Amino acid sequence: GEDIKLDVKCKKRNVKPSWDYDAHVALDQKDYDCRIYAFSSMTEKIVTFMGWCGKKEFWDQAEIVKRGDKDNRGFAERRDSGKIKYSQLRKMSDFIKITKSSKWEAK
């Protein structure tokens, strides 16, 4: 089979995750060797996978933000990053189906 490098991003939260929240990748990680990003949120001891996308797909859609910028809820960005809404990600169920099939294509 083909080796696919996956970068899993996880945010610790004090509240339940929402599809309106953002998936971030730090700009200094943009050149890391991976093809897929998977995004999750952790509350207490529960990890919820929110979705995934191809690396190129993420950076083609991402809004670039700088550390200290305020988002639409008034939270300051912690790092220079690219971000998209969780609602823009592909479903984890699709990821499982694709990885089980013989056809693999991540943009």
Quick summary:
The protein is α+β, with helices and mostly antiparallel strands and 107 residues long. The protein has helices at 55-61, 92-100, and strands at 6-13, 22-26, 36-43, 46-54, 63-65, 81-85.
Keywords:
107 residues, alpha+beta, 6 strands
Number of helices: 2
Structural class by SSE content:
alpha+beta
Basic shape: globular
Unreliable stretches (pLDDT < 50, length at least 5) are none
User: What's the count of strands?
Assistant: 6
Q: What order do the SSEs take from the amino end to the carboxyl end, as H and E?
A: EEEEHEEH
The biggest sheet amounts to: 3 strands, mixed
Straight-line distance between termini: 18 Å
Helical residue percent band: 10-25%
User: Largest beta sheet: what is the strand line-up?
Assistant: 1-3-4
Note the beta-strand portion: 35-45%
User: From the alpha-carbon coordinates, what is the Rg to the nearest angstrom?
Assistant: 14 Å
What is the overall pLDDT average? 90
Structural account:
The chain is globular. With 107 residues, the chain is α+β, with helices and mostly antiparallel strands. It is built from two helices and six strands. Strand 3 (36-43) and strand 4 (46-54) form a beta hairpin. The protein has helices at 55-61, 92-100, and strands spanning 6-13, 22-26, 36-43, 46-54, 63-65, 81-85. The strands form two sheets. The chain has a three-stranded mixed sheet with strand order 1-3-4. Strands 2-6-5 form a three-stranded antiparallel sheet, with helices on one face. It starts with 5 loop residues before the first strand and ends in a 7-residue tail after the last helix.
